[in-house]
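To illustrate the input format used throughout this study, we show a single complete record. The first block contains the structure-token representation of the backbone; no residue identities are included at this stage. The design step must infer an amino acid for every position from geometry alone.
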């Protein structure tokens, strides 16, 4: 397989279309046409990670965090980012990062945290907007089934736990082709009326190319009439963070002790304990201070995240417990998630979980 073919698999799972605007995802270093020898899967790409890739004969590193985040103006090896990139280039090792594209996936980072905590009835904490589009097209009655199926095959018409969803309305369309036209129905230069079905479907924004490709292939008309609208609807299966429920209530101290052991946290910084049972839990891997109000609004008893600052803890306002379990600790199982997914798709080369500990924080 080529590097690009591996990228296609990853981005079918976590489309980079849904990465946050500030992020830097995708192929950061390397030639996407190269054949993969082996791939190293890691949370972070550092010099030590590249050394491990060299030792294990991997020419592709699949990383959660991007080593290149802001622009590089020089490559002189004066800092850890430049040294890592230079070493990868010298050893012909490609680096790919997925980061917030995977954060935003329902079966992504936060689902993994929820799984480790045994949470049930999971829902996205901050559902994403700008990710759902609506297509309306007008099709002759006898071609409606063919076009509708083609749109469904491309991934259109899926809403939550339902697929093959569409709205259909029959009416009469009119058209007149000019002298350069080649109408499938009717004759050029003459107004023609045709019984048509207006087919309406919704689809994820990242599938637009595939949806339109199937529409044009299946539609009988020389000129296809269609409309596309971006919807403001929240996407309940895409977005940041997650909420879920424990099977049984547990006291706060016992739950925090469980979290500490599950994630191997050196310590957990938390806001004031409220002496209330924990049932509903909100989680957001990595830096999650921006979601504190969302966790409160969701009715969470506790919010598990990382990188909280001093004043962030005041925002608990005795409505929930805020728990900072550490950035690395909250996202450490992400590489296992990527490994598990790719293992089911790839058998032509070795996938290797990185052994390098990339946690920059130590505890006494």
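Output of the design step:
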């Amino acid at each position: 397989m080529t590097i690009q073919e591996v990228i296609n698999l990853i981005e079918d799972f976590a489309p980079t279309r849904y990465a946050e605007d500030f992020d830097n995802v995708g192929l950061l270093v390397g030639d996407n046409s190269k054949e993969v020898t082996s791939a190293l899967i890691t949370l972070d790409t550092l010099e030590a990670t590249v050394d491990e890739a060299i030792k294990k004969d991997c020419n592709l590193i699949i990383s959660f965090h991007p080593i290149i985040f802001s622009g590089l103006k020089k490559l002189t090896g004066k800092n850890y980012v430049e040294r890592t990139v230079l070493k990868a280039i010298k050893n012909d090792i490609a680096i790919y990062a997925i980061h917030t594209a995977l954060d935003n996936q329902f079966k992504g980072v936060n689902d993994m945290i929820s799984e480790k905590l045994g949470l049930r009835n999971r829902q996205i904490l901050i559902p994403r907007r700008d990710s759902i589009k609506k297509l309306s097209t007008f099709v002759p009655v006898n071609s409606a089934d063919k076009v509708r199926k083609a749109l469904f095959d491309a991934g259109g018409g899926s809403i939550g736990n339902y697929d093959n969803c569409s709205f259909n309305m029959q009416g009469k369309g009119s058209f007149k082709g000019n002298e350069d036209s080649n109408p499938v129905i009717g004759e050029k230069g003459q107004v023609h009326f045709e019984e048509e079905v207006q087919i309406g479907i919704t689809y994820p924004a990242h599938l637009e190319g595939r949806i339109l490709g199937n529409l044009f292939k299946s539609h009988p008309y020389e000129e296809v009439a269609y409309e596309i609208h971006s919807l403001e609807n929240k996407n309940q299966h895409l977005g940041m963070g997650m909420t879920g429920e424990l099977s049984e209530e547990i006291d706060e101290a016992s739950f925090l002790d469980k979290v500490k052991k599950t994630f191997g946290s050196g310590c957990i910084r938390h806001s004031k304990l409220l002496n209330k049972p924990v049932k509903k839990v909100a989680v957001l891997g990595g830096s999650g201070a921006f979601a504190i109000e969302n966790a409160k609004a969701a009715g969470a008893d506790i919010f598990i995240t990382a990188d909280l600052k001093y004043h962030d803890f005041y925002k608990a306002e005795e409505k929930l417990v805020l728990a900072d379990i550490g950035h690395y600790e909250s996202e450490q199982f992400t590489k296992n998630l990527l490994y598990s997914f790719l293992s089911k798709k790839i058998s032509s080369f070795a996938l290797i979980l990185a052994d390098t500990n990339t946690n920059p924080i130590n505890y006494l």
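Structural context for interpreting the output: The longest strand covers residues 235-251. The domain at 3-103+333-353 is CATH 3.40.1390.30 (Udp-n-acetylmuramoylalanyl-d-glutamate--2,6- Diaminopimelate Ligase; Chain: A, domain 1).
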